[in-house]
Amino acid sequence: MKFEGIYTPIITPHTVDGDIDHHAFAAMADHLIAAGVHGIIVGGSTGEYYAQSVDERVSLLNLAKEVIAGRLPLIIGTGAIRQEDSLEIARQARKAGADAILVGSPPYSVPTERENALNALAIDRAAGLPIMLYNYPGRMGVNMGEEFLDRVGRSSNICAIKESSGDINRVHLLARDYPQIQLSCGMDDQALEFFAWGARSWVCAGSNFLPEEHIALYRACAVEGNFDKGRKIMSAMMPLMRVLEQGGKFIQCVKHGVELAGMGAGPPRPPLKALNKDDKRQLEQVLRVLKTTVASIEAEI
Mean pLDDT over residues 188-213, rounded? Predict the structure, then answer.
């Protein structure tokens, strides 16, 4: 499977009581498709999978498959603390007819490279689907190092890796030493560098509420090869990326951004809380400037 373009890790909208809002979720998927994203990931960290039961996650992946109806690729996140839960979600993804799965390291347990690889390969066997690996040591506690990559790389299902370490040397390593594994940007403030090193896809939470602007950067760099234009767009997007990452309010900012875009998001699940008024005002100001600036760049001849 070739991963090309913008892949949105879709949010999970909630009611005020914290229940999953299935109607808003379906509307969000339709909205993203209409906006032109190239794929949707269900069950990623942006979707708050860690705060959901397995039954809830299976319900969402089946709803996503029904709503998307083959209009673009559907990727299912399998991340979980318990291997049994990851295997069940992988099996359900296969049963539903998902196009691929997202496989990260199990959080908290801090497996060795060998243990982590064997875990990933067990999930691979359960699904039998194309795989995008997800390297996020900041959340999972371990890095998908060379021993891990060498072991899992023996599977023909390993297609890509979403690299979210923030270490630019990892980008160099993957591009040079593992060219058979497609490189996908998982660190928003390094998107320009990822594209320069040959990445063809970007998994970006901000595309939940700014799909056109994220597509504009991908198009400028990966499609047109116009890195002068890409640098301008990236420069315009950097203030947003700083806001998203500050103070551990990533999910809260994404959900408020979705609300500002006119879609239902609702609050995050506990222990997270919605943004306060000052944080909302700051995000809104950044978004106004960003949208105006990118529109001006796109209008340039």
Answer: 97
Given the structure tokens 């949707």, which residue do they identify? 40
pLDDT for position 248: 77
| Integer Cα distance of 242 and 161 in angstroms | 24
CA distances (Å), origin 199, targets 187, 190, 245: 12, 11, 22
SS3 label, residue 184: strand
Please report the sign of the dihedral spanned by the C-alpha atoms of residue 34, residue 39, residue 43, residue 47. negative
**Residue 252: which of 278, 272, 282, 277 has the closest Cα?**
272
User: Of the residues 134, 229, 232, 255, which is catalytic?
Assistant: 134
Confidence of residue 246 (pLDDT cuts 50, 70, 90): confident
pLDDT tens-digit readout, 268-291: 999 999 999 999 999 999 999 999
For 101-135, give the DSSP string.
EEEEPPTTT---HHHHHHHHHHHHHHH-S-EEEEE
Q: Which of 7, 136, 162, 229 is catalytic?
A: 162
Contact 80, 86 (CB under 8 A): yes
pLDDT value, residue 270: 95
Using left for φ > 0, alpha for ψ between -120 and 50, and beta otherwise, residue 141 falls in: left
Is residue 294 classed as helix, strand or coil in its secondary structure?
Answer: helix
Q: For residue 245, what pLDDT is reported?
A: 78
Kindly report whether the global pTM for this prediction surpasses the value 0.85.
yes
134 is catalytic: yes
Given pLDDT bands bounded at 50, 70 and 90, which one contains residue 247? Answer: low
Identify whether 232 is a catalytic site residue: no
Q: Domains, the chain, ranges and CATH?
A: 5-225 (3.20.20.70)
Identify the burial level of 45 via C-beta atoms within 10 angstroms of its C-beta, where 0-12 means exposed, 13-18 middle and 19 or more buried.
buried
Amino acid 203: pLDDT: 98
